[in-house]
Design goal:
Chains A, B: Keywords: DNA-binding, Transcription, Transcription regulation. Two copies of one chain form a homodimer. The longest helix of chain A is centred in the middle third of the chain and has 36 residues. Chain A is mainly α and 180 residues long. Chain A has two domains: 88 residues, Winged helix-like DNA-binding domain superfamily/Winged helix DNA-binding domain (Arc Repressor Mutant, subunit A), CATH 1.10.10.10; 79 residues. In chain A, α1 packs across α2, α2 crosses α4 and α3 packs across α4. Chain B binds a DNA duplex (30 and 30 nucleotides) through α4.
Chain lengths: 180, 180
DNA sequence: CAGTACGTTCAGTTTATTCTGTACGTACAT
DNA sequence: ATGTACGTACAGAATAAACTGAACGTACTG
């Protein structure tokens, strides 16, 4: 068997594994495959080249790349002389991981925090009502407790994401493992 | 307006927010809603009660609960006297977060690590071939480099998940925030 | 000013996922 | 044993997501 073929075959298998893994990040297989392909390509690619390489429509390449751009897994590259847009894969996966978390989680967290806070305030107002059945008051109180617990969690999560974003997480879990 | 209604309304809104957020964890809306509902219910529930409460089929409840069980977001509760299965929501969200990560990521990580390792070994074997075009050799070498970088990332991720699973992450990011 | 080479929007189609109702198996009760 | 109450497998229907090709807008080219 030809070595070039072997090489391609190994590459493809690895790309498939990467794509598969990227499901965990909330990314579809085909977008994952696109990323994997770009990662092993040693030069930025145009949409047409991607389309060619993956045998998919240009539309798909366009939307997939946009998706990857939003997640900062891919960046646009400028090259004079060509009118086509060029894209390359972000190579630092630690950074990719962090960006992904930051982008996807941050807004969700803050939405939850504000929703919980608002809800707690409303429940506290309800509790103040004079004419209130005892069982309703108890229910409101336990709800408030649960929401406070949730709030505490979201704030913890926020601090976790902070430590990702600032890179401080690497003080705690270093990129290089010295231990073994 | 009746206070009981208000209470229910607030609760529902919060549940909706939670469900929405759980998308980030790779869980569908309706499963998220089921979890949220269970979280605010102050007693374990049967499948029939859930079905009633959410207005969905019992089949859905059964499969959704199984899903939540797998993620350890819900646990089965025993109560003598009834033949029905009872389920309650895991209340500690920090723990839930950790379990989720551990369960969903661990296997993916190790699959990737082994896939990468195997691929690297194969490429190194290819490089050893005497009759090998120079450009193929170079390509193989850069691929190996990229795979090594990926490997380093996965090992980092594994150590991160370790710190979640062991609870050591809380030494670094404490559950209670003392700072502000 | 055409003319061409791009990327992207949009509507329709295909494919995958979620949801439901019926049917089934098991375990307990009588 | 017979009946009943439960959870779940399974197949089909409803819903959502991914993918495509044609049409469009923009920007560069001659």
């Amino acid at each position: 068997m030809d070595e070039k073929e072997q090489l391609d075959h190994v590459r493809e298998r690895v790309i498939e594994t990467i794509a598969n893994n990227m499901n965990l990040y909330g990314v579809t297989d085909s977008i994952g495959r696109l990323y994997g392909m770009l990662y092993f390509q040693n030069h930025p690619m145009t949409l047409d080249e991607m389309k060619e390489e993956l045998g998919m429509s240009k539309t798909s390449m366009s939307t997939s790349i946009r998706h990857l751009l939003e997640l900062k897994m891919v960046e646009k590259v400028w090259k004079k002389g060509t009118r086509k847009d060029l894209y390359k894969a972000e190579e630092d996966w630690h950074q990719t991981f962090i960006d992904l978390f930051t982008i996807k989680w941050r807004s969700g967290i803050s939405m939850n925090i504000s929703a919980m806070s608002r809800a707690i305030a409303e429940l506290e107002k309800i509790i103040e009502s004079e004419d209130l059945g005892e069982e309703v008051r108890t229910a409101a109180k336990t709800d408030i407790e649960k929401m406070n617990a949730a709030l505490q969690y979201y704030e913890w999560l926020n601090r976790l994401v902070d430590s990702f974003e600032s890179g401080k997480i690497f003080d705690f879990i270093p990129k290089e493992n010295n231990k073994e």
